[in-house]
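Question (not urgent): is this output format expected?
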Amino acid sequence: MREFHAEQRALADACWQLLCVREELPEPGTWLRRPVFGTDVFVQRSGDELRAYENACAHRGFPIRTGDSGAGPIRCSFHGWTYNKDGVPTGIPRNAELFQISRDAQKTIGLRQVRLAELGRFVFATTSDKAPPLEAFLGRHAQVYRVLDARLAPLYAIRVLQSRASWRLHAEIALDDYHLASIHPHSFGAEVAVDAYRYHYERDGLHSCLLRRRDPDWSFAPFWAELAGGGFERTGYKMFNSFPGTTAGVTPNAAVVTSYLATGPRTTTAVVWSFLWPDARDGLGTDVLGLNAQLFREDREACEAWQTTVDALAHPPVLGVLEQRVRWFRETYAAVVGA
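Got this back:
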């Protein structure tokens, strides 16, 4: 566990994670709870503003939120301490009798706030003050999320899934186009291996992206040019992988965004948000959900099997052309966290 916490601290110092989308917090007072770089966090809507805090009462460290989501004031169920939107304990039962904590002193022992930043509906978080501003961290991927927010229909569905495998394995399998014919022979239409030239990769600082292309001359250049003006060229399949564990897979009809959140050295929570383009055909949402449920199940089974032996490899992994993004991920991980 010590290595896990050190890893997560290093990631938080350099990175952001996609935590939620605004549609999950539709009304003032609604909240949800998720891990952020290994830390238990809850985010709460106050008016139209979102605030996030470590999920530990300032009194004795009891979890403020014990469920996954809900609505109501920030109140610890252990002793009844109540907090305002700034995380200050403004309601301390029997304060005058038992504690005599002044109003000024209350401000010094509040909940620890967690940094949030928003790109439209997409809400990112980090637990470190050292991380750069979100847009500097994401680079041109920030415009991807900004334009997706503007052009996609409202959130179609969300699924929160659990895995008994490391977040790193899930991040790597999402970057791997070599496994499709073996792990997804039917669900991904990969009964026959696709020619390698159809997979075009680009590296963007810590991040990377994939374009499934028609011919060897098709590139990302027209897409980036249109994106800069607020458009989103929808031809083909594109995937945007934002380090460490956020992916956005976009087709001409839908977009599926996934965040792999570490809950332990060998456990992961995957949050999957599904969106449709406004002109999508009727019934497509059901098809998208069914396909992605199967894809995640197949990937999860592979990652959980892989977890049992991954530490036994006695030499660096042998990575081919269709694992280029895995190679970049490993180089980035080594630069951010260490070998």
